[in-house]
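Question:
Now give any protein.
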Amino acid sequence: MNAPVLMQVVGARPQFIKLAPLSREIARRRLAGRPYRECVVHTGQHYDDAMSAVFFEQLSLPRPTHDLGVGSGPHGAQTAAMLAGLESVIEAERPAAVIVYGDTNSTLAAAFAAAKRHVPVVHVEAGLRSGNRRMPEEINRIAVDHIADLLLAPTASALDNLVREGRAAAARWTGDVMYDAVSFTRRLLSGVARPAGVPEGDYLLATVHRAENTDDPHRLAAIVEALATLAETALPVVWPLHPRTRAALERLGRPLDEPGLMLFEPVGYLELLALLDGARLVLTDSGGVQKEAFFFDTPCLTLRDETEWPETVAAGANRLVGADAARIVELARHTLGLPPVRYDHGAFGDGEAAARCLDEIEALLNL
């Protein structure tokens, strides 16, 4: 009899990070005699080396069994291309379950493809809600959570969301696999060099990539104004540029040679964590970076009007500042004046979420 296949579908940076702990746990259990094998499918949503290949290398992930090479494009066209490719892969591999992560178009396409082939869908990081349905990610989360057979919630609030939506029977709390990833990776950072020119400790770190900021020239201009002001009057701002953001800045046409504003190409996972660990403050619109900053006890200002991680706000580690330049500058200066704080990370588990996820998957499949 062939070993059951656990198919994991990823396509973007945060998903590679979430894949790593579960992939390690699968490998550990296979060595212990568990009768299944892993199949990793990369949709190609993030397709260049800086946004994709470097993460597989640094996280020691298995090379993808299948790489669909879909690339970027409008949401509909991208999701359709993924759906077509994934249907073929599912037909060929005949997996026992398809495991999806987070809230990207890759997540949605994989859940649809598996459900239509009557293959059980497992959603890791289920139940997150920002309350903003203008975010494509919010639509993806809601749709996948009402398709999936097993919903693995990283926090109590995520589990509560699933219960309120009538999905309690399929929902389980596991803790957050990203906390597992950071706990594992932290030990590797001592030998990681920061990009040339980044000062030791006295800098701010910025990341901006969400469509609500990059596609709205008014929001993007306000964020750039705030970062430039802080770079000139407070501390240097280290800003690794997502390809989407670089293109948006070129469209904006504003010179970015302000003193202290340090623009870089995208960095690898280890380099980003090293930057997070050393920064005095993080300004970001990324859900993953909000949490990673929290896990490193680095204060965060979120360049959005809502967050899917209310636990970080409740802990006092994260403030929502939107795209109001004056508010961003004011709260950044205020935060820089506060003493360092060590936050309680318990809301995200104990670093063993991957083991709980795999326990629940084995129970679902009667393995």
Notes: DSSP finds 15 helices and 13 strands in the chain. The first strand starts at residue 5 and ends at 10.
